[in-house]
Amino acid sequence: MGGSLSLLMRLQKAFNPTVVAKQDALLQIGILGAAQIAPSAIILPARNHPEVAVAAVACHDKGRGDKFAKANGVPHIYHGSNAYQELLDDSTIDIVYIALPNALHYEWTMKSLKAGKHVLLEKPSANNVEDAKAMFAYAEEKGLVVLEGCHSRFHPAIVRFKSIIDSGKFGKVVSFAGAFRLSKLLGDDDIRFNLSLGGGTLIDLGSYVLALTCYALSSELTGIVQAHADRLSDDPNADTSKIDLRTTATLAFPSDITSSVDADWHKPRYGPFGLLMGMPEASLTCVMEGGEVRLSNYVFPNIWHSLSVTPKGGKKQMEYAYAFEGSPKEQQYWSTYRHQLEAFVDKIKGRQPRNWVTPEESIKIMKWIDKLYENTGLGPRPSTSFVFVK
Ligand SMILES: NC(=O)C1=CN([C@@H]2O[C@H](COP(=O)(O)OP(=O)(O)OC[C@H]3O[C@@H](n4cnc5c(N)ncnc54)[C@H](OP(=O)(O)O)[C@@H]3O)[C@@H](O)[C@H]2O)C=CC1
Ligand SMILES: O=C1OC[C@@H](O)[C@H](O)[C@H]1O
Fold first, then answer.
1. What is the ipTM of this complex?
2. Is pTM, for the whole model, over 0.90?
3. Which of 95, 121, 151 is the last residue of a domain?
């Protein structure tokens, strides 16, 4: 099939994945919050997974909740101020998908665990490392699965990217660069720019960069060489002065490897009156002694990505990894979120997932997000006033 035809097919499949026949005894998923990301991250993947069903959504606002449920074929809706807790009290729900503002991840993960539910939690896992540690410790105590949805980690493209580095074919790693850069299309009132809701560009976009960098290098980050944040406001008394529109940093890894981080929600716009957005960038580049490998588009690699391998002094070669080797043909259309759901269900069912984001990794990423925020002077994202009682 020609390039443009396969691209069209992948686009079509991304928004209309095959609806599969369901097995008996499905794991029932409840969604907390009628979030924008929920259709891509859980509704569509669940339609394509034979062992799960989305059974309910909880939304404070009845009108919005009804609209969400209707548009996404969710059979039951909880609404009103106690909606989230009512969903957790529903004994038919096995899994809770949490796509709430970052500051609410801790509270609703703890409450979900207390209610005996497994949790698929949006990235970043929490507002700060202390909250993340408490969440994963409680999950362990309860014998339940909590997975931070760093969805890119599950796609064949990132696994292939890492395997090229790990193969040693190009020798030792010299340096690494990770970027997630977008033009600002959201208002300042978006959850991403609100300190009390756990906002900030490093915690939002940078959480991917840190997680994917640490995964690809399979080694412990050892320190911060330098870091800089462009703030939303210069008024030291305003919360917005603690919100970074862009954070850039250089990190140190063992063997003198340095890695750059660019988390940017303020990529310049261009054209007349700045009407055009800059090209979104989600890339990872690893420079090794004998060559370089670069992955572009780790966010929606199922629609399109490129993996370029350039031997030192040689010609760039392109690779694509839409499916794992030997996997059924249909899987070439799986999104990062569909791969993630596969792993999550495997873990709950006691099967070995192909790939996993461990609690230790999630905690480590939160630790370095805190350290970077300390380093840039903005300070870690504060915990909320919620006090958890077992
Ligand atoms: N994995 C991925 O690709 C992506 C992940 N994310 C992550 O998902 C989470 C949610 O992001 P997104 O979908 O953009 O969020 P939304 O802005 O759509 O908000 C999600 C839900 O949070 C509740 N909420 C929104 N604003 C507030 C507020 N001011 N105070 C209290 N509750 C609020 C609402 O619940 P209700 O319906 O009850 O009113 C809303 O439906 C974040 O953690 C983000 O990092 C986001 C985008 C992509
Ligand atoms: O994938 C994403 O892209 C945009 C971000 O703001 C969002 O939170 C993130 O997960």
1. 0.98
2. yes
3. 151
